[in-house]
Design brief:
The complex is a heterodimer of chains A (about 160) and B (about 290). Chain A has about 160 residues and is an alpha+beta fold. Chain A is built from five helices and five strands; from the N terminus they run E-E-H-E-E-E-H-H-H-H. In chain A, strand 3 and strand 4 form a beta hairpin. Chain A is globular. The chains are: A alpha+beta (about 160), B alpha+beta (about 290).
């Protein structure tokens, strides 16, 4: 294709190169070209947050970002949270606090909560609710999601190396 | 949903971006944060042949004080506004307004310049800019001009920006010490546009209003300055009678579009209520010199 751009970025620590049309959305590159199916396609209208990934220290909705905009960036998806076979404190806390029911929103919730705790390691309940207000849970399991983020914040404070 | 095909350009300077706009003509659109334009392209409401991405132009980002104003690069994100210590101290109305915009993810990408240039009366910065009496720096092939926010918004998606011009900077006069502020926004859910919203800056002199700016979001095809309401309040105390009359005068200039957020009467009534609340909140924050 004539109108193809080569885009390079770091995905969960690994350098990747992809060739994309300008109109290709990041969520499609991740899922269809790079086999990272953790980020989900929910609403495709930047409302639900199921496609949330972390790009250069920002939580973004991958359904409303062009892959060509990500050249040279550092990206983290839910696949990159686990390190050496050990779940991230947030993943462990979602498991322990029943922070998911159907699980569809979970990768987005986890990556969003990851950035929230990086910016604010000790958030109040209100700050957590405001901080995840761009992520919808159709099971409406928000109580346990908030509890899980609180639990993860406590664990990370006790063992900051795991952040 | 995937946008229609287009060519992608990523200039590294404002001068290069202006040159590209000249070469590509009206079939080119500027891409800022992309959270208005890309959704419109997905729905085929916009089908530009070229996108010029302003995301890699460092000179378009940043917040700095210059004398008695704060200068904000057009590509500064809502997230940057929310976290700015300078704005929190000097222009807290802008921080409060940014906190009501969209959701965290969208605020990392959405920019103040994009929000203003889009000319959508549902966006929040236009009314905030009117209340703050801000000015905009517009750059084009013929050079630079500085225009007032008041008069910039011409109609639905229509502004003073010429097709070959870029909004590069927003200049906000620092309100006098003791100025009260508030942005009150009614919305159905996080991420929604305002059913109605009102921005207020308020200076008191003793018990009476010395100066007040009132601006309305999503009340008509453009953001509105509620000048009759402002004029009514000057020289009077903030009390039930003056608030009622100010709210009535603000409502009288509303011409809202009925949609799923409500019919015109409901939106007009909510504009009155947001105006009342914003005046009360600003009053509670104003210094009583």
């Amino acid at each position: 294709m004539a109108n193809t751009h080569k885009v390079s970025f770091k995905l969960n620590g690994k350098a990747v190169d992809v060739a994309v049309e300008p109109r290709e959305l990041l969520i499609h590159t991740l899922r269809e070209k790079l086999a990272h199916t953790g980020p989900h396609i929910g609403c495709e209208t930047s409302h639900c947050g199921a496609c949330t990934v972390d790009v250069d220290g920002m939580s973004v909705k991958a359904c409303t970002v062009l892959t060509v905009q990500c050249d040279g960036s550092e990206m983290l998806t839910v696949e990159g949270l686990e390190q050496g076979g050990v779940l991230h404190a947030l993943q462990q806390a979602f498991h322990e606090e029943h922070g998911l029911q159907c699980g569809y929103c979970t990768p987005g919730m986890l990556t969003r909560a990851y950035r929230l705790l990086k910016e604010n390691p000790n958030p109040s309940e209100q700050e957590i609710r405001y901080g995840i207000s761009g992520n919808l849970c159709r099971c409406t399991g928000y109580q346990n999601i908030v509890k899980a983020v609180q639990s993860a914040a406590r664990k990370l404070a006790a063992a900051p190396a795991a952040a | 949903m995937i946008p229609p095909a287009f060519e992608y350009h990523v200039p590294r300077s404002v001068a290069d971006a202006i040159k590209l706009m000249g070469e590509l003509g009206p079939d080119a659109k500027l891409l800022a944060g992309g959270h208005s334009l890309l959704p419109m392209m997905k729905l085929r409401f916009a089908q530009p042949g070229h996108l010029i991405d302003l995301g890699k132009i460092a000179e378009l980002r940043g917040i700095a004080q210059a004398g008695n104003q704060v200068q904000i690069g057009a590509m500064t994100t809502e997230h940057d506004l929310l976290g700015s210590a300078l704005l929190a101290e000097k222009v807290p109305l802008l921080v409060e307004g940014a906190g009501w915009i969209a959701d965290p993810q969208v605020r990392y990408k959405g920019t103040i310049g994009g929000d203003i240039s889009h000319g959508d009366p549902g966006n929040d910065h236009p009314a905030l800019m009117l209340a703050l009496d801000a000015s905009f720096v517009l750059k084009g092939p013929k050079g630079e001009r500085v225009v007032k926010a008041d008069g910039f918004f011409l109609g639905l998606y229509s502004t003073l920006l010429e097709p070959d011009e870029i909004l590069t900077q927003i200049r906000v006069p620092i309100p006098a010490a003791g100025t009260g502020w508030s942005y009150q926004k009614l919305k159905r859910k996080t991420g929604d546009f305002a059913t109605a919203a009102t921005a207020v800056l308020l200076q008191m002199s003793g018990a009476n209003v010395a100066k007040v700016h009132i601006a309305l979001t999503n009340a008509a095809a453009t953001p509105l300055r509620a000048q009759a309401a402002e004029a009514h309040l000057v020289g009077k105390p903030i009390n039930e009678a003056s608030l009622n009359e100010a709210a009535r005068l603000a409502m009288s200039i509303c011409d809202p579009t009925p949609d799923q957020r409500g019919d015109a009467d409901y939106k007009r009534a909510m504009c009155g209520e947001m105006t009342r609340r914003a005046l009360q909140a600003a009053h509670s924050r104003a210094g009583k010199q």
